[in-house]
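Hello again,

I reread your note about wanting to compare the complex against the isolated chains. To keep things tidy I'm splitting this into two emails, and this first one only covers the full assembly. Below are the input lines as submitted, including protein chains and any nucleic acid or small-molecule components. They are followed by the predicted structure of everything together. The single-chain runs will come separately.
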Amino acid sequence: MSTTGRRAGLFCLVLILLLAAQATRIQVFQAKGYDNNPANQRKTIQRYAQPRGDILVGGDPVTGSAATGGRYAYKRTYPDGPLYAAVTGFSSQTYGNTQLEGVEDGILSGTDNRLAGWALWDEISRKQHPGGDVHTTIDKAAQQAAVQGLGNQKGAVAAIEPSTGRILALASTPSYDPGSFAGTSTADQHAWTELQADSDQPMLNRALRQTYPPGSTFKVVTAAAALAGGTVTDINAPTGAPYPYVLPGTTTPLVNDTSACNQPNLDLDTAMTLSCNNVLGYLGVQTGLDKMVAMAQDFGFNDPKLDIPVRAARSNFDTRMDQSQLALSSIGQFDTAATPLVMAMVAAGVADNGTVMYPQLVDKLTKSDGSTVQLMRPKVYQQAMSPSVAGQVQQLMTDVVQNGTGTSAQLPGAVVGGKTGTAQHGVDNSGTPYAWFISWAKPAGSAAVPPVAVAVVIADSDATDVTGGRLAAPIARSVMQAVLAGKSQ
Amino acid sequence: MATPAAVAARGEPAYRPRTGRNIELALLLCAVAIAVFGYVEVGINIDDRVPPDAAEYGAALGGLALVAHGVIRWRARYADPLLLPIAVLLNGIGLVVIYRLDRATPGSHAAPTQLLWSALGVGLCVAVIVLLRDHRVLRRYAYSGALVALVLLVAPIFFPAVYGSRIWITVGPFSIQPGEFAKILLVIFFAAYLAAHRDALALTGRRIWRFTLPPGRVLGPVLLVWAAFIGVLVLETDLGMSLLYFGIFVVMLYVATARTSWIVIGLVLAAAGVVLVGWLSPHVHARVDQWLHPLASVEAGQGANQIAQSLFAFAWGGVLGTGLGLGHSILIGFAAKSDFILATIGEELGLVGMVALLLLYLLLVSRGYRAGIALRDPFGRLLAIGLATIVGLQVFVVAGGVLDLIPLTGATLPFIAQGGSSVVTNWIIVALLVRLSDLARRPLPEGEA
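Full-complex prediction:
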């Protein structure tokens, strides 16, 4: 019996070894898969076990955290939700994280390795770090001016500091309150469902994620390309542009909105001031597809990975077109489409003497104790044109505001350059036109680079007389005024 | 240095067999210290403070351990010194984990109740050691014990089912699981029966192909007992227990007779039983499905079932665990403290804790086998091996279920899971093993060597 007893004992040993092997399999080899299973609540519990780090505007948090008393201990709050929704995105216990809340989630939730003091020890002790903070480049006054200016119209504003690429305002209306669905309650679910069903798409970030035909604001790009490419050497000299200008290969003339344009051989300065389609369409074709594409791309068109760090939608300027299409594209029609962000880059590049800076929404990332994790430095995106060409384009834009279609953007005590745009869209141009305005401003007498460039778009306005000058320029003016007032203090 | 002659001249014995009692005492102190440490850690990790009753709790566990130790010194001085410390440590770990799960379930006070049951268990353990001077006495009561076991097993049929199983007897606020106690009585019966009939079982019978079938008059009662117990258990849908009984039965038969044919017969019967039960019971069918596809409910969008939750808990623990009190095994739901308590250990103590725990069980089982193999009377030998096998198989059935190694059957993890009947039963098993190991390790009287 002692042999069989030993064998039976061996059998028990094997059983327990099998258990140990299975435990090893689950806890070591399959652990990651189980941890990441969507039905496993542990990651979510851990994520919300501590207050989330904050997103800051001008050093003040525009986000907060509230204890819930539930399984997910803390949820996100947004003291001024709709005002900053286009900047922050949302962090919801049910619906995930988007935009800055999503891109910088590692810092905010405390899981980013850069928050660790002793990575290996922290790994062993499973220490959870307090969430770090994300300092944005947003200018509080500019943001408020943008949102107030947009009011209850459907539209967007992007404002940039030309010399650094820092984004000063990023607004999209109608907006939403990201705090309304931050938790897990039925009220949160209800708010979410309602927002999703809203035909006005309040959760669409129109400044970053939506492209619109830029219309005449694109003429700034065409003018820059014409000057940089040598098609035009003097902005006050006759360009040789014919009137009427029949689109090459067709019998369709390119019509103008104002009869003052209806004469041949206008100079570029007059054509820009009056926004003459025939001149700029002609100049685009004369400059040629390659140079037009290159100039557009230097300003951010056709970039599928424009990350600020939130990714912006790709703005489009076709790279293969016939001449009639090129003519239409040169005045911001046909397939040309731009986000307000990229049109702000156009204005900023011109203002910064031809240097387009990479747009940045984040200044720095810090730990909860305030020490810096990462400092964002200004980055050059492209040298779009020489400073002398930029100077000429600046002159064109200044004239638009002084004597042309953009007079409603004038600011006392400041030099303002701008360009209006009224873009047709819809079948047979039946939709309400998009009203655009891009501009920059600096204090009068200053030789420095303008501290602000801005792009405004109003989509589907109720107004009967939709023009960029009437609808969009005043908003741009109040944003620029807010920045200039802040600088002069 | 005194020469042996000098020692003998002073009237001291030249040879003093080692009893291991001081080792046992030292190990007991370690076991209590580990349990108290765990208790304190739970308090600090969950409430940021030492639990207010930590001292009382430590004193209670330590007191129970010392009483049992004293009685062993008095009545079983040659007993294996590892048995009691392992039991105390396991029981202490159980109390810590139940306390920890109490903290996650508002209004729950399962830990104090478990401590009371543990005290009762130690009390019965002490009583067995004191009253049972020679295990061979038990042989006399083997048949009446088997009858009592049957009655105990049948009784719950007359009480309402709880979570689909009729295995509890409920009287007012108390509920006991008589099947737990029946285990011991059955092992005693098996040991007595097999010791008496092992020659007939081993040596006689008809030969069919390469196997020798035992004669009907010997096989008959065995089959009868098997059928009776399996039948009752199927009625109660307590699969863990039926698997357990059956396994013990086959192991003991094999040890007693050394005939591989018993294993074959056993496997055939088991397979038949499983197919039959799987066919008759949708409950079992579902369990098998869950075992094969633990994440099916997740994929179907219905959330994680208990097995999936258990796997999530083990996985989250990883190698080192989250630390006591810092896991989320409470997500498993209602059976977190009983059938699924191992998942909490896996999550909060990690693979390291799991392996340590399995080693403790392995040590306990191997010490039982050691005592059995060292004993010379067949009854004692079979009894020790049977009792050790109960522990080993029960650990396998429970842990294998929650680890998705075998279908989940629902049984208690010895000493650790919440449940009075289980804790008391396991303490009695330890008492019997103490008694058996005392005899196995006792030095032979003069002249018999």
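For quick reference: The mean pLDDT of chain B is 85.

B.
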